[in-house]
Amino acid sequence: MTDHKEFLISPKALRKKTIIAFAVFFIMIIAVVLAWKWLQRQPEEQGALKPLRKVLNYNESFFGNFFSHNHLAKTFPLNAAVKNVRVNGSEGMSDDFDPATWKLHLVRSSGDTQLITLDEIKALPKTEIIFDFKCIEGWSQVTHWGGVTFADFAKKYGLSNETSKKYAGLITPDKGYYVGIDMASMLHPQTILCYEMNGKPLPLNNGYPLRLIIPVKYGIKHLKRIGSLFFSNERPPDYWYEQGYDYYSGL
Ligand SMILES: Nc1nc2c(c(=O)[nH]1)N[C@H]1C(S)=C(S)[C@@H](COP(=O)(O)O)O[C@H]1N2
Ligand SMILES: [Mo]
Hints:
The protein has helices at about 10-40, 50-65, 120, 150-155, 185, and strands at about 45, 50, 105-110, 110-115, 125-135, 140-150, 165-170, 180, 190-195, 200, 210-215, 230. It is α+β, with helices and mostly antiparallel strands. The structure holds ligand MTE and molybdenum atom.
């Protein structure tokens, strides 16, 4: 019986432990509040508070280097593709656009732009893909697209110098929407300069005449209505990155 005595705690010791527990609890709350206030005082960098942007950048370099480029997005049978494809986002798709006079502006370097017609693009080898298109807003849809892979396009147009750059940039004709894509993702075998949806020409609000389909990335990177395409070692401007989203936006 006397052995148990040492496990019992006196009321005085208990009070002391309780006080210490509460003190630790309050100190932690104060620390969280101070950390939060500190975070709020930090400058913004590309739409995100600087320390948070640092974490995003770190995630990007880590995941970007180890995952995305060598894996293939899962593909589906034709009958899995939805007939009513959702239309989401119309930034850079102003009404004054004239599809009849559209040509792709391929900017090889500054001052060296080649204009390419839709027929010329359609004459290149065609690739189709049926995959689960994912939007960061939380929805996804199995959809069916067709066009020329950027890799095939680059081969046919002799873009070896251009594709040795780190990034490709895409801009709508009115410059209202723009994305930057790391070259490894651009050259990924499922990345398509796309002109067909469900075996028919793209509807205007899904990006006619030409859009990007890049299954290794979220919807925000699938720019509709490509006006020009350029190459750079610096990150091209990116519409949603400027609003605080992840530049890489990989899946
Ligand atoms: N020009 C342009 N392209 C865009 C957008 C946009 O607002 N403007 N939105 C993007 C987003 S957020 C998504 S989810 C997809 C949707 O493609 P869909 O309308 O063909 O379904 O387009 C992407 N491409
Ligand atoms: Mo999206």
